[in-house]
Design a protein that fits this description.
The model has no long low-confidence stretch (mean pLDDT about 80). A three-stranded mixed beta sheet has the order 1-2-3, covered by helices on one side. The protein is mainly α. The chain has two domains: about 1-210, Cation efflux protein transmembrane domain (Alpha-lytic protease prodomain-like, Up-down Bundle), CATH 1.20.1510.10; about 215-290, Alpha-Beta Plaits (2-Layer Sandwich), CATH 3.30.70.1350. It has helices at about 1-35, 40-65, 80-110, 115-145, 145-175, 180-210, 215-225, 260-280; strands at about 235-245, 245-255, 280-290. The two termini are about 45 Å apart. Helices cover about 70% and strands about 10% of the residues. Helix 1 packs antiparallel against helix 2 (about 40-65), helix 3 (about 80-110) runs parallel beside helix 5 and helix 4 (about 115-145) runs antiparallel to helix 5. The protein contains eight helices and three strands. The longest helix has about 35 residues, at about 1-35.
Amino acid sequence: MADTSHTASRIRQITWAGIWVNLVLSAVKIAAGLLGHSRALLADGLESGMDIVTSFALLVCARFWVAPPDEDHPYGHRRIETLTTLGIGFVVGGVGVSVVYGALSALHSGDHQHPTMLALVVAVISVVSKELLYQWSAREGHKIRSSAVVANAVHHRSDAISSIPVVLSVGAAQVFPGWTFLDAVGALLAGGFILKAAAEIAWPALREIADTGAKADTLEQIRVVVNATEGVRSSHDLRTRYVGAGLYVDLHVVVSPEITVLEGHRIGDAVMQRIKAEIPDAMDVLVHLDPCEDL
């Protein structure tokens, strides 16, 4: 319970920090986009605003997925984290589509204005501040093993990356005043980066919902750990799946048919403890004991 409380507290701290940073950045970028005549920066400000929405979703949902298993949810509530991650991905994707559509419309209509130096300064500040927020959030998310916190951190980085084309396009417009279309090009590139970030967030969550197992190298690492455990003759029927950031492992181990139930239990427990100790994501391990028939 103490670990659950600590995890929930860390999620709240990380999320609130992101909310405040995004609140300030979103307001500044939207204002600077309007005053500085930059469609790209205005789109970037809206993307920062979506960061606030996804952060609040994270804040609300975290209290549920960190709850311990109960009678109705004997395996815990980590699927809520998966759904939250997927929701963040869809929201980010929606913003990306909106930005791309607006940029293409501007390029088609030729409705361009010359962005000012104010837009350039704010875009540079956005890149630096959001990259710092990403680094901190991702590091803390990996520490508490929360895929949703890491997904939200990726959203912060998408905001930082999407500001880079804004910096380049607005900066180029300062050097070449007649090239006002560059602002819309910058918005288009920003939208592309946002869509890429949405795919990177949503795809792992979709794979998890489909019960996709661990990669081949992780499976081989598990087999090596299991077969090196004292008392294990061999292993088979290894199955894995991810629930949130945790890996659930289910396998059969072959032991001597002449050992006692107690000895078999100790071997199974040793296998479980070694997997949890040596496989970083392993959260739960179910070991089936099979008697060796080749004596």
